[in-house]
Structure formats: C-alpha cells, structure tokens
C-alpha cells in the first residue's frame, strides 16, 4: 500500500510540473536545442504569446528550462533545457516510443484486426 501511495505522489508531482496542454510540446522542441521565443511561438501551433510566456516561466521555475537574455537590438531571448531538463531526454524518447506503439495498436483495433 505504501509503494502505491508513493507512486501516486510521484505521478501527481510529474503532472504538477509537466501537466497542461503545452509543456511537453515545449520540451519536445527544446529537446533538439536552443530556441528563441519567436521560434517556439511559430513551432507551437495554436499557443498564444501570453500562454507561452506562462509555460516557459513555470518550466524555468521548476529548473527544467533555462532562459538566456542576449544583449542585442532588439533583445534576444533564448530557451534551452537545463542540466536537469536534459535528464528528461530518455523519458521523452520513451513517451514517443509508447505513443507510436499505442497508436499502431489502437489503429489496428479500430480497423478490425
């Protein structure tokens, strides 16, 4: 019972840090390297600038995303994964593998195989 409660607490923590519509999308883009704010905004279809700012601030506060301001005209802001954020790469890869397999399984079921 104690292990189950611990697992549930861990899952709740994960959802607290990564939950929502956009955070995993942001992380999957930053997985491949630094991005400027405008690049992120263009790559994430349907997200508003206000929501992107909020999600990036949440991820930065959690220590997963690093924000770097570059003194250019106009000021450039780049985002990247922190050292702790980089530890999520295997998790993101596993989630992707699971999604591919699950989609294949569900498409076969819906096709009657």
Automatic annotation (TrEMBL):
Domain HTH hxlR-type: 4-107
Domain of life: Bacteria
GO MF annotations in UniProt: DNA binding
Keywords: DNA-binding, Transcription, Transcription regulation
SUPFAM superfamilies in UniProt: Winged helix' DNA-binding domain
Record's protein name: Transcriptional regulator
Keyword Signal: no
């Amino acid at each position: 019972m104690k292990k189950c409660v611990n697992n549930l607490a861990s899952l709740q923590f994960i959802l607290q840090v990564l939950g929502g519509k956009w955070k995993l999308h942001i992380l999957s883009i930053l997985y491949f390297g630094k991005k400027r704010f405008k690049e992120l905004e263009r790559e994430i279809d349907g997200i508003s600038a206000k929501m992107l700012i909020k999600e990036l601030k949440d991820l930065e506060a959690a220590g997963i995303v690093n924000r770097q301001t570059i003194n250019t005209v106009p000021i450039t802001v780049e985002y990247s994964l922190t050292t702790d954020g980089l530890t999520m790469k295997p998790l993101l890869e596993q989630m992707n593998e699971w999604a591919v397999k699950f989609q294949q399984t569900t498409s076969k079921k819906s096709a009657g195989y």
